[in-house]
Amino acid sequence: MDRKIKMGMVGGGRDAFIGPVHRMAAQMDNKIELVAGAFSSTPEKSRLSGRDLLLAENRIYDDYIQMFQREKELPEGERIDFVSIVTPNNSHYPIAKEALLSGFHVVCDKPMTMNLDEAMALNKEVNDSGLIFCLTHNYTGYPMVKEARQIVMNGDIGMIRKAVVEYPQGWLADALENTGNKQAAWRSDPVFAGASSCMGDIGTHCANLVEYITNLSITEICGDLTTFVPGRKLDDDGSVLLRFDSGARGILWASQVAIGMENGLNIRIYGEKGTLEWTQEEPNSLWVRWSDKPVEIRRTATDFVGSAASSNVRLPAGHPEGYIEAFANIYRAFAEDLSGIIDGSDDHNPSKDYPGSKDGLRGMSFLDAVVRSRASDYKWISLN
């Protein structure tokens, strides 16, 4: 392909958190360029945000409908090739649906939709469209997460018995949503976040990560959601027991009221022959524990990791790579897939290593089951 892939963005304007992350990640490997956007539900803020990013005035739009209508009138090679959706949860589905109907491929922040019904509909629309869809469960982009998955797939630790995944944060230990904090406000509001805050925001990352590394599917859950902060409308802590299709068992804990914790995602996989341990705040190390030999600490970009990990690094060993680079690995895999489609050199390959609409549907099925479990007296709830 003799040009960069052209990206449009919906959301991610001034004061946003995840929008700038997407922009940095998308453009890191020089395969993608941002050329257009509708950056806010407020037209003036969208225009100011586009100017901040030095976009051409005629490519800064008042809303996503206007952007899709005008962009599809431009010649191929000039118009956007895909849209990146970085808005609150409640608008993911209508924006993604309109993008697909307009002929644009989609990258969407998680969770995929507001609820399971929307997720089922969007997954079908993606499959019917012939276009590709990427969901940015970015933690699967870390090299040592890919190393852990490869170890499991190779059978090195044997059949998996237990998986424990935790995601403690402490930033919502107080009612930050009442102080004017925009990020806290929409996450705590069911109108924008949906039926769950904590479990929807970070618990879905846990479910996605454990299924990705183990290559197993969660089939049943027993969940408990709690709201600790008085007056808060949605959950801020949750614990879930997991059953997998292989017979393995698991424990998932997500909290945003764990004081002193920053972004403490971690996972432990216990197999018949060994154990894997990885933590997001020290992402360049993977602990591998064996029953019959010393503990190993495998490090990013060394000669002792497999091809899945080594193909997702940019720097030599000892030069830490982290959150933005993991995000960029998702965008790079998507861009390589999309490049082949645009120039006709390769058909879309569903096995390419980035999360898609099927993963988004899995996440919403998990979240739906946890919410149903909270309200049920039944011990085990099956995923739909």
Secondary structure layout plus pairing:
Blueprint: E1 5-11, H1 18-27, E2 32-38, H2 43-52, H3 64-71, E3 82-86, H4 92-101, E4 105-108, H5 116-129, E5 133-135, H6 143-154, E6 160-168, H7 182-187, H8 190-193, H9 198-214, E7 218-226, E8 237-244, E9 249-255, E10 266-271, E11 274-279, E12 285-290, E13 296-299, H10 307-310, H11 323-343, H12 357-374, E14 381-382
Helix pairs in contact: 1-11, 4-5, 5-12, 6-9, 9-12
Describe, in short, the structure shown:
This protein has 384 residues and is an alpha/beta fold. It has 12 helices and 14 strands.
3D architecture notes:
The protein is built from 12 helices and 14 strands. The chain is of the alpha/beta class and 384 residues long. The protein has 2 domains: 5-139 and 327-355, NAD(P)-binding Rossmann-like Domain (Rossmann fold), CATH 3.40.50; 142-313 and 364-374, 2-Layer Sandwich (Dihydrodipicolinate Reductase, domain 2), CATH 3.30.360.10. α5 (116-129) packs antiparallel against α12 and α9 (198-214) crosses α12 (357-374). It is globular, with a radius of gyration of 21 Å.
